[in-house]
């Protein structure tokens, strides 16, 4: 790669004052390089500082930044105000980020929150390099889908939701645009791979439609015809936990042994009692259906491929948690 002209153009881009406006043109001029524009709002004075990261075909990275005359001096860049460490204030009671994470520490064994935070960072990293502009029509379509998914079917309901979540209209548009960008990235990652993945792993998406209930004490197994009556009576007298009775299960979401028993059973079979959180599970198999690559399953396959892609990136990522002590966070 010839760096001279590219670096000159990069300096021109950064010194323009609005480098985000010229980024697409720069990428079009130098398609052999992956570029990422990093913006940092300086807590000290509120100024916005940009840097450009340029990766060439050999994996090397050039980091380029530009500072205007009389801008915030370099020694003060990155200085934090005390308020930056606050996550929440309720009736004057402040919750620092470190305390919030410590309060959530009980869920680390499941790692769901940690995984989602890391995944979000990895996705945003990719979008900063490859995100494509969203047209007004596409943004409106994404906004309509966002509102439908949350039951915000009127302007009044949408405004109430925004007020409850302390979100402005601009912030809502940014949130929706990000959601649409993630969906587009997921489609790009999965492009050309769906059919092969389904051919190899499609059995994981087989469907079992069941009726189920968790009993407080180990129940006698009823006959198939009386299953729902037994569940109804047990719920009425408190010997069964409240919960969803009818469910659709995917083979890959179940324990392997449980999945084998459910998916091998003919309709009408009672499975269990099985150990379950809070008691003993009985399952009545209503129907078993092999997965078919329709629109719903295609979306599921894209999501599985995307999850695998994120996991691959996570395995090679440098992850740092800025809370607690190093020994406690090193393995997170």
Could you explain the architecture of this structure?
- This protein is α+β, with helices and mostly antiparallel strands.
- Among the domains are: 64 residues; 83 residues, Roll (Chitinase A, domain 3), CATH 3.10.50.
- Helix content is 45%, strand content 19%.
- The chain is built from 12 helices and 9 strands.
- The strands form 3 sheets. It has a 4-stranded antiparallel sheet, sandwiched between helices.
- It is elongated and about 80 Å long.
- Biggest sheet, in brief? 4 strands, antiparallel
Strand order in space, largest sheet: 7-6-9-8
The CATH architecture assignment of the domain at 207-289 turns out to be: Roll
Number of helical stretches of at least 4 residues: 12
Shape: elongated
Q: What is the strand content? A: 15-25%
Tally of strands:
9
Alpha-carbon distance between the termini?
38 Å
Low-confidence parts lasting 5 or more residues at pLDDT below 50?
Answer: 106-110, 324-332
Query: What is the averaged pLDDT score?
Result: 83
Coarse structural class: alpha+beta
Run of helices and strands: HHEEEEEHHHHHHEHEHEEHH
Name the CATH class of the domain at 207-289: Alpha Beta
CATH topology of the domain at 207-289: Chitinase A, domain 3
Pfam family, one: Rotamase_2
InterPro entries: PPIase_dom_sf, PPIase_PpiC, PpiC-rel_mature, Trigger_fact/SurA_dom_sf
Protein name: Putative peptide maturation system protein
GO molecular function: peptidyl-prolyl cis-trans isomerase activity
Summarize the structure.
It holds the Pfam family Rotamase_2. InterPro entries: PPIase_dom_sf, PPIase_PpiC, PpiC-rel_mature, Trigger_fact/SurA_dom_sf. With 332 residues, this protein is of the alpha+beta class.
């Amino acid at each position: 790669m010839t760096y001279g002209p590219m670096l000159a153009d990069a300096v021109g881009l950064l010194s323009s004052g609005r480098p985000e406006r010229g980024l697409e043109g720069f990428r079009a001029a130098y398609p052999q390089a992956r570029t990422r524009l990093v913006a940092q709002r300086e807590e000290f004075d509120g100024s916005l500082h940009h840097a450009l990261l340029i990766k060439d075909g050999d994996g090397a990275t050039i980091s380029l930044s530009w500072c205007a005359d009389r801008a915030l001096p370099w020694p003060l860049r990155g200085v934090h105000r005390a308020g930056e460490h606050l996550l929440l204030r309720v009736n004057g009671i402040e919750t620092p980020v470190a305390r919030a994470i410590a309060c959530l520490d009980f869920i680390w064994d499941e790692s769901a929150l940690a995984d989602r935070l890391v995944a979000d960072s990895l996705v945003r990293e990719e979008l900063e390099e490859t995100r494509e502009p969203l047209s007004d029509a596409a943004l409106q379509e994404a906004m309509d889908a966002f509102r439908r998914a949350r039951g915000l079917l009127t302007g009044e309901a949408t405004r109430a939701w925004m007020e409850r979540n302390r979100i402005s209209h601009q912030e809502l548009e940014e949130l929706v645009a990000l959601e649409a960008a993630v969906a587009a990235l997921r489609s790009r990652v999965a492009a050309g791979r769906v059919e092969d993945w389904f051919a190899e792993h499609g059995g994981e998406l087989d469907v079992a439609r069941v009726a189920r209930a968790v009993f407080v004490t180990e129940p006698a197994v009823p006959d198939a015809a009386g299953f729902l009556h037994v569940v109804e009576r047990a719920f009425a007298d408190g010997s069964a936990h409240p919960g969803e009775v009818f469910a659709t299960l995917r083979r890959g979401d179940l324990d392997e042994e449980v999945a084998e028993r459910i998916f091998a059973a003919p309709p009408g079979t009672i499975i269990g009692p099985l150990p379950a959180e809070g008691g003993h599970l009985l399952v009545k198999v209503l129907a078993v259906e092999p997965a078919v690559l329709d629109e719903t399953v295609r979306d599921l396959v894209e999501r599985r491929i995307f999850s695998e892609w994120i996991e691959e990136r996570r395995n090679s990522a440098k992850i740092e948690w800025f809370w607690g002590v190093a020994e406690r966070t090193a393995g997170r």
